[in-house]
Amino acid sequence: MLSSAxxxxxxxDLVHTPGQVDFRPGILFSLRNRRVGHxxxxxxxxxxxxxxxxxxxxxxxxxxxxxIRELERLxxxxxxxVEWGSGNTTRFFARxxxxxxSFETTPSYYEQVAETLRADGLRNVDYRLIPHDFEGEDDEQxxxxxxxxxxxxxxADETLDYALVDSAPRGCLCRGVAAKIKHGGVLILDNANxxxxxxxxxxxxxxxxxxxxxxxxxxxxPHHECWPAFARLTADWxxxxxxxxxxxxxxxxxx
Length: 255
Known about the structure:
Blueprint: H1 4-13, H2 41-56, H3 65-74, E1 80-84, H4 88-96, E2 99-104, H5 107-119, E3 125-129, H6 140-144, H7 147-154, E4 160-165, H8 170-177, E5 181-190, H9 226-233, E6 238-243, E7 248-253
Parallel strand pairs: 1-2, 1-4, 2-3, 4-5
Antiparallel strand pairs: 5-7, 6-7
């Protein structure tokens, strides 16, 4: 039997609101997600499972469970990393690794996450706010002039044990940070299936999966250069895909 507190937590998680510290998979629509074609009974079951998991593990990152287990094995107390897109991942990395630089673009969300870091006494995070909303932007050259993207290119090569990209513009950030990963280090890309075609063996399928690399002929945005360049840069990296039926997380390990 669920306790009343757990039941209320599940109900709270069914609708994503701006007040949540981290995005947790909910059942109902958020204001920015009005697609309904993938809402099958099977998909609804995945959403309910994710909501229950989030209720019992409220501080767990909103990555796939398999990828979280992988990262727990791959990262260590001497690891140094960076993330674009903060939240529960920020605390997850800060508690397990030596140092983290975290970038956030939404001021109100930045304040929420900063407060959780203060409350938890986590002082090994260089938490930076670069306010910007990339929604609707399509000019890669303009994106590369943004301080958020420039930060990826300005890092020294082969200095990072890990990097998480969970913020727009993902393609520009992935391309920029790939060379900064040490040999044996990892690059984590959430919702990777929206930009890179997942192998057929990855189950269950997740909504929005593409069949061609974003930026190549046949993709939704055929004129972008960053995703094809990133795919070439990481062609020989070990790719560990995982899915929970809602999203896919890709962990790339540099040889």
